[in-house]
């Protein structure tokens, strides 16, 4: 895959809204803020900063939405990767409620941005967390109780096996949490819509402008690309799994992992309703999760399986299809029209890693919850740049461990862990 292309075989790229190519950076620009990365984090930061009156330059090494923001499952889930029970146990009720509240604000921001900027991204409501094991139902009920009684969230309910089977046309699950507060969307079109909004707010966006290094200067930073540079007071890193070695001081806090999705041929209205009757998105409770939803043109978009290499399978549809058929054997005769993949980033504690080093701000490691949380990350960074860091510090104050082995050995160690948990899933 060329670094300048959207992933081949991607349903999202094939159904993307028109978006004119943006010019690469050439020469020198002076700005207040340079944002590195044209995904959800960078676009949100650029938009919020531009709305506050800052002169903003955003640099994307490939195309807007090229990374995880334009390739993911499109699921807008509740809260963070850690459950409210775990958040309360780890950080206390007050901090847990603050973290959950910011995650909820992030979901509201998506609806507000889509409405205000008229972003055509197939936004729909509803999520389902499907119980892969009978014993999952106990902690699911505990989670709902905690949401209602301690957090004050009342949109989730526990379904029994029969009701789950009625909504999700599969015999695989023992029950599910149905959550009307969540939803799903076309992530690449949402990213392109945010980019258009940022441009309208006077941010300057550049594609094909890979950042090669960031130097400290007496008056701030100098951000270099192959053909230009930006002199600025503040830098925002929104690179996530594609950070590479650009900022070694934070690279070891995240682990890039691979993620693959397939898209079926369009289904009839009746076939689609038999798969997901309420048109919600679905994720299961396995360690190596399967996640899926229906597209606007009634394709099943299904992500699943695990790989332990950064090199994608030669045949992505052939790799993911068996996982889909385990859930929906009735799709055995359906054609697979799309198959694509990319990288996301996880942290050791599965919570977002946000912080600052002087006037360099960063947010990364969303651990599968990035569709919504990236938006609040950009907003909080804009607040902190403006001098109000109280809300930013709710996330920035979380302690994050470096992956064992640093950037050299973290991947082999993760492979061992993934093999163990994958084996447990199968047993």
From TrEMBL:
| EC number from the UniProt entry | 1.-.-.-
One function term, GO molecular function aspect:
oxidoreductase activity
Q: Which PROSITE patterns match?
A: RHODANESE_3
Keywords on record: Oxidoreductase
Q: Which InterPro entries match?
A: FAD-dep_OxRdtase, FAD/NAD-bd_sf, Rhodanese-like_dom
- Enzyme class, UniProt record, top EC level: oxidoreductase
| Annotated Rhodanese domain residues | 19-75
Family matches, as PANTHER family: FAD DEPENDENT OXIDOREDUCTASE DOMAIN-CONTAINING PROTEIN, SARCOSINE DEHYDROGENASE-RELATED
Name of the protein? FAD-binding oxidoreductase
Q: Highest lineage ranks of the organism?
A: Bacteria, Pseudomonadati, Pseudomonadota, Alphaproteobacteria, Rhodospirillales
